Amino acid sequence: DIDKALSRAEAMVADGAIFIDVGGESTRPGAAAVSEQEELDRVIPIIKAMRTRLDVCISVDTSSPTVMTEAINCGAELINDVRALSSPGAIETLISSKAAICLMHMRGKPSTMQQEASQTSYENVVGEVFEFLSTRVEHCLAQGIQRSRLLIDPGFGFGKTVQQNYFLLKNLAHFSQLEIPILIGVSRKSMIGEVTGRAVDQRLAGSVAATTFALASGAKIIRTHDVPATMDAIRVNCAYSSAE
Question: What is the CA radius of gyration of the chain?
Fold first, then answer.
């Protein structure tokens, strides 16, 4: 529903969103995969419509090189890849583009990442996620992608237990050593629901609290469903950080 998507995007921009993330394949735990053609059919018309109506950075949430190419050609400026450009041809697709790239950490695949014990087994979750992202960053640089185009995301909820998610959040500042802007997404996730006992549509306060901790630890971009409240948290954090 393009009109519905545009209406939602316009409201988010009016509330302060700088990026709008468009995705045609759900990556929530347990989600089933969709075909590449279905993903294209879902996202490309919306990106085209948004590009003509909104002055905003469009992000596309995909791991498909084909979808990346089509999305960039239609005006997407950020590739948000939960598989950190590990799909065959993904890096090669992006080398000659100017799009920014978010490299995220994920164990396994969305359909099973929270169901198999092996996917959430770490000796040191912070160290292992850091090492993965460091390796992916270095690989991108070696392939000719400029550091200035890269973002990193530790992947809260993607192959991690609740306790591991909070340990990552507590140690988020460690990832600043990579000298790459940190993007985080904790909005309404199960790591919020598990500790608050709240349903998905009642997790605003918990999501904002987690966002505030992330901002204090160096996060630069926040993915959220609830733009007004998150923008308030960002503004308060900025005022607090700059107070003299």
Answer: 17
The catalytic residue among 189, 198, 203, 220 is 189
DSSP output for 43-105? HHHHHHHHHHH--SEEEEE---HHHHHHHHHTT--EEEETTTT-STTHHHHHHTS--EEEEE-
Q: Please state the length of the chain.
A: 244
Active site residue 223: yes
Range name among 32-36, 167-171, 192-196 with the lowest pLDDT average: 32-36
> In degrees rounded to 5, what are phi and psi of residue 15?
-85, -5
pLDDT of residue 33: 80
Which band of pLDDT confidence, cut at 50, 70 and 90, is reported for residue 25?
confident
Question: 182 with 153: CB under 8 angstroms?
Answer: yes
Q: Which two tokens stand for residue 121?
A: 């087994």
Catalytic residue among 83, 136, 149, 223: 223
Lowest mean pLDDT among 64-68, 118-122, 123-127, 177-181: 118-122
Active site residue 189: yes
